[in-house]
Write a structure and sequence with these properties.
The protein is of the alpha/beta class and about 350 residues long. The protein has seven helices and 17 strands. It folds into two domains: about 240 residues, QueA-like; about 90 residues, Thrombin, subunit H (Beta Barrel).
Length: about 350
């Protein structure tokens, strides 16, 4: 029987979409959902450690969001344009895949000028190709080395808050739209489940003997892209780059073998882990591009539990969580979250599924 997109719809009051992070990372609310009994508990995020002990491993995504949103002007007309950096195609020739807005005004051959805070032209780029309706390939003109170029690019760029945060960028976002694990630059959106972890929680986890395994999955704009087919088997995910090291593999497989629990922190981690399963069902070191789309029914190999934020109706993230915990249980949990006024999306509250 086909799994249909319409089965994953629900009504979400717009006032529950979080516009700001809570004051302290680890004090967002935490809904705990028990898969075996269907029991739902209401906690605070720092209580998450009560459910884990030595032998257990938390798998986190160490990707770092780069300031992907650039604002500039088109040559001759001076029209204002927004360029959203997606991925670097060639460091030597400084080719990038980008999204542009307004797309109808940006054509092949156009030059785009990006100014610094003092109003001086700091970077120039030329549109080389069209990729999709809003997608373009552009080449930056820059004489320095790649490190200098990246520094200039990141100096001019702004933190790419999702469009559903309906306010201007503020100083707090530079810190809070990154996890404390962030080190590998390459994401255009934060792996939001990791945003709740604080330095204090890490220390407490270490005292309990809980280990941390890091992987990298560079979150792309596909995270926010609408699914446009009713039959989910026909949906194609955007590919995202991931890397899982031997060190993390050893920690995860050891926890599995010794009766420990692997907590997967976020849908991005789950996607990377499930993309790197060996023929024997164990995790293996791996790197490359994954376009894995997880939807029910799906047999998970790696994670015994998962922490995630509250997601958009009919999104690939909500569908993955439904595959992990069961469609009916997640539907009930989300209705409870709406009733209890949990905060949704990137800066919202969290759900632990055990």
């Amino acid at each position: 029987m086909r799994t249909k997109l319409s089965q994953f719809n629900f009504k979400l009051p717009q006032n529950l979409i979080a516009q700001y992070p809570v004051e302290n990372r680890d004090e967002s609310r935490l809904m705990v959902v028990h898969r075996d009994s269907g029991k739902i508990e209401h906690k605070v995020f720092k209580d998450l450690l009560d459910y884990y002990d030595e032998k257990d491993v938390f798998v986190v995504n160490n990707t770092k969001v780069f300031p992907a949103r650039l604002f500039g002007n088109k040559e001759k007309t001076g029209a204002k344009i927004e360029v959203f950096l997606l991925r670097e195609l060639n460091p030597r020739t400084k080719l990038w895949d980008v999204m542009v807005d307004p797309a109808r005004k940006i054509r092949v051959g156009n030059k785009l000028y990006f100014k610094d805070d003092k109003g001086k032209d700091a970077l120039v780029a030329e549109v080389i190709d069209n990729t999709t309706s809003r997608g373009r390939t552009i080449r930056f003109f820059y004489d320095g080395d790649n490190e200098e170029f990246h520094n200039e690019l990141f100096r001019l760029g702004k933190t790419p808050l999702p469009k559903y945060i309906k306010r201007d960028l503020q100083p707090i976002d530079k810190e809070r739209y990154q996890t404390i694990f962030a080190k590998e630059v390459g994401a255009v959106a934060a792996p939001t489940a990791g945003l709740h972890f604080s330095r204090e929680m890490l220390k407490r986890a270490e005292l309990k003997g809980i280990d941390f395994g890091e992987l990298t999955l560079h979150v792309g704009l596909g995270t926010f892209r609408n699914i446009e087919v009713e039959d989910l088997s026909k949906h194609k995910m955007d590919a995202e780059y991931y890397q899982i090291t031997e060190e993390t593999v050893a920690k995860v497989n050891k926890a599995t073998e010794t009766g420990g629990k692997n907590l997967v922190v976020g849908t991005t981690c789950m996607r990377a882990l499930e993309s790197a399963v060996s023929a024997t069902g164990k995790l293996k070191a791996s790197s490359g591009w994954t376009n894995l789309f997880i939807f029910p029914p799906y047999d998970f190999f790696i994670g015994s539990s998962m922490v995630t934020n509250f997601h958009l109706p009919k999104s690939s993230l909500y569908i993955m969580v439904s595959a992990f915990a069961g469609k009916e249980l997640i539907s009930d949990a989300y209705q409870e979250a709406i009733k209890e006024k949990y905060r949704f999306y990137s800066y919202g509250d969290a759900m632990l599924i055990i």
